[in-house]
Amino acid sequence: MDKLFLIIKREYLSRVTRPSFIIATLVTPLVFVLFFVIVGFIFSYESDDTKKIAVLDESGILKGALKDEKGIFFKFEQKSLDTLRKNFKASGYDAVLVLPKIDNLFSKDYMVYYYSKGQPTLDVEVHIKDRVRDALRDYKIDALKLERKQLEALNTSVDVEPEPIEKGGQDATRLTGAIGAGIGFIMGFIMYMAVFIYGTMVMRSVMEEKTNRIVEVMVSSVKPFQLMMGKIIGVGGVGLTQVLIWAIMIPLLMTIAQVAMGFDAEQQMKMSQGASSVNPEDTQAMVMAAMAEIGNVNWALILPLFIIYFLGGYFLYSSLFAAVGSAIGDDMGEAQTLTIPIVIPVVLAIYIMIKAVETPTSSLSVFSSIFPLFSPIVMPAILASKPPAWQIITSVILLIGTSIFFVWLSGRIYRVGILLYGKKGTFREFAKWIFYKE
Amino acid sequence: MDLILDLQNVVKTYDKKIAVNNVSFGVPRASIFGLLGPNGAGKTSLIRIITTITRADGGKVFLDGQELNSLHPEQIGYMPEERGLYKKMKVGEHLTYLGRLKGLSRSDTKKALTYWMEKFEVSDWWGKKIEELSKGMQQKIQFIATVLHNPKLIILDEPFTGLDPINTNLLKDEIAELSDKGVSIIFSTHRMEQVEEICDNIVLIDQGQNILNGQVKAIRNSFKKNRFQIDFAEEWKGTLPPGFEVVDQKPASLVVGLSEGGNSNALLQYLLGQGAQISAFNEILPSLNEIFIQAVNKNHGLVS
């Protein structure tokens, strides 16, 4: 036990003190946040050239007003189109916009004409379309003598509000599903990353020990199983450290970036949804409800379960990676061949998880949340949608049992593999090694 | 005899291959013991059994009178032939780690390290990374790691490969000193001249079996062919009477084989009677190299 602790300590400390680890841990959130800032910047980037556009409003719907925006300046002209076209070069205009007379109020199509050297750019086109449509709508309402309030009443938004069937049962709101799905995705992906990043870290490290032949010295002091477990636990600790640092740093940096960039959430939401549809108070209410819903999630149950699934999944898969690492030397190509059977269930689990978040009670979801090769990724994703107790208990027991079995199995392969050189690791060899006596 | 290590009918099989086939031998306490054998003979399998890395399928192994158990690794120091270190670790950290894994307390490790690092004049390497060291330097570190925990039994597999003559001698002296202090040493190598020089006893393993075991002197005597080398002060052109066979003749030296029951004194007397100026008269003992080849070939059914 003492020695196991020594091995864990070395495996952990030798990694977290490595400059490459520190850099990766600190830089990844920065890169991540930078990426989002840049994406945000790109999306909010407006054309920086200015356009002057002459407007010939023959229809009169704009009532002499078209707001300038984002480097697009409109000027109403009374001159005829021909004159404007003739003097186009000298006028300083970039384009002439013609709004023809409206002949039929009931027409659903309206064409405006844009005279310029080239095509209208997309932002100009969108801007003109939106403004003209709004103006035309107002114009039509007045012209047809419609009641504005009645019209607005036609746009009804419909939501499905879940209610418990038993009286006094726990009430969920329409946000529960969405919030559950969100948490599920995040948890599923953390699991996925943990298995891949840290599982392969274990594998590489085993391969390295075997290749540089330290392993024979090590196993003359400790049991191969201790060495393997020490490595798995040590690397698992590294993983937890990294995930924890990221979990703190990414939201923190995001907030800082948002403040520094000067766009607050509300404004962004307005921007993304368009000013017209949702009013800010509604948005705020939504956010509040979502926050309340996150608070409503049974964290006291979900967090410990998540840790169980994290550890179970990690031990299960990383021990398999360790076994593969022990069977091969420095041949990464061979490593890839042998890891395929490990990778396939993980990738499948991710797809199932995505589906399961949508339909947490389907047979596929229920089966996958119990099947131990999938459950570490699938179950955390559907926990927020409150699966029945029997499902969770069966799943946890199966996962723990399978993890212990796989760790044992991998230990059997590992102890033979690390001391064997020049022999190719094949699955048939693995099977033989498992039954070797010590 | 006082044995530090006693192997009794040890058997180890992998799949259908018998790696160690009913091997028995004993290692006398405080001796330097040569574990010899051609490549693939089963030496590594034996060493792994002794170091408790693997377990024998049959037979018994006693270390210091006790059947091998999980506490014994702390009393054994093993320097494998294929040895490595964690490249990214610092020398001091690495040795501390290996010492602690052998069951030493932190302070004992520190004490032992100070002693050994000073002895090998490597104290100023403490903060160096292993990867900065040359192969020979790493070997010194590996040797320190092997003896750090003051083991009763040390197993050295080809300890001199990669060392320059100065460091080879340093290590030889160290081995001799440890042996004088009562530590038992098993020394595995293919370099027979080193075995002749260092070892008191040997065992020769071939095809998983013990084919030759005993004291080096006794073995060499048992393999001797009654041959003598005579060096003359000046060129000698005589002939020998019957019963003496000239095996090799050079102007001023002669190798003579005595027939069964022949007497070396008779030869000497004859030569002196002939007025030969003799400067040296030696019995030729077969080298371990010859014995090794002869014994292995015989075991393989080949005529030497």
Q: How would you describe this protein?
A:
The complex is a heterodimer of chains A (438) and B (304). Chain A is 67% helix and 5% strand. Chain A contains 17 helices and 4 strands. Chain A has helices at residues 2-16, 19-44, 81-86, 88-91, 122-144, 148-153, 176-211, 215-219, 224-261, 265-273, 280-296, 299-327, 332-358, 363-370, 375-382, 389-417, 427-434; strands at residues 51-57, 72-76, 95-99, 113-116. With 304 residues, chain B is α/β, with parallel strands linked by helices. Chain B has 2 domains: 3-220, P-loop containing nucleotide triphosphate hydrolases (Rossmann fold, 3-Layer(aba) Sandwich); 225-284, 2-Layer Sandwich (Alpha-Beta Plaits). Chain B has a 6-stranded mixed β-sheet with strand order 6-7-8-3-9-10. A 4-stranded antiparallel β-sheet of chain B has the order 2-1-4-5, covered by helices on one side. The longest helix of chain B is centred in the middle third of the chain and has 16 residues, at 165-180. The radius of gyration of chain B is 24 Å and the shape is globular. Chains A and B meet through helix 1 and helix 8 of A and strand 6 and helix 2 of B.
Question: Short summary of the structure?
Answer:
Chain A has 438 residues and is mainly α. Chain A has 17 helices and four strands. In chain A, 67% of the residues lie in helices and 5% in strands.
